[in-house]
Write a structure and sequence with these properties.
By secondary structure, this protein is α+β, with helices and mostly antiparallel strands. The protein has one domain: Aminopeptidase, CATH 3.40.630.30. It has helices at about 15-25, 80-100, 110-120; strands at about 5-10, 40-45, 50-60, 65-70, 105-110, 125, 130-135. Strand 4, helix 2 and strand 5 (about 105-110) form a beta-alpha-beta unit. The model has no long low-confidence stretch (mean pLDDT about 90).
């Protein structure tokens, strides 16, 4: 059976879902809602209606900042990494098409996300403790 992957913006309950994921991955730490972008810049990617990951995009002029990417710790299917790659690709596309973003950056403290960004053509600066990654769109 082929998975149906859906990319969408936040809907009711998504913030609470992300809080549970952050608690699991980040030892109980969550991001307060008021420190996140508006719902149209908060994204979720699903596989067969199961939420797999979320990412958040701040936009200032033609620059975007992708942050707080988090994934569902219970989703352990073989396509997990591919879906995370698709999330980043979809956010890049949305940033460019919807808000005119020409330059996007993030900070990766996770080797797996760093590898995903590297594979997707982002420049990875390994001189900082948490790797800064950038991409011109």
């Amino acid at each position: 059976m082929k998975n149906e992957v859906t990319f969408r913006t936040f809907k009711e309950g998504d913030y609470e879902m992300c809080c549970e994921w952050w608690k699991w991955w980040w030892d109980g730490e969550i991001q307060r809602r008021q420190f996140l972008p508006i719902d149209t810049r908060c994204f979720v990617i699903e596989s067969n209606n199961t939420p797999v990951a979320a990412g958040f995009l701040f936009v200032d002029g033609n620059m975007g900042y992708l942050t707080y990417v988090v994934s569902n710790p219970e989703y352990r299917e073989a396509d997990r990494r591919q879906i995370l790659e698709q999330l980043v690709n979809c956010i890049e596309k949305e940033a460019k098409e919807q808000w005119g973003v020409e330059f996007i950056l993030t900070v990766c403290g996770n080797i797996h996300m760093e590898n995903i960004h590297n594979k997707l053509g982002w420049y990875v600066d390994k001189t900082a403790p948490a790797y800064e990654t950038i991409k011109y769109l």
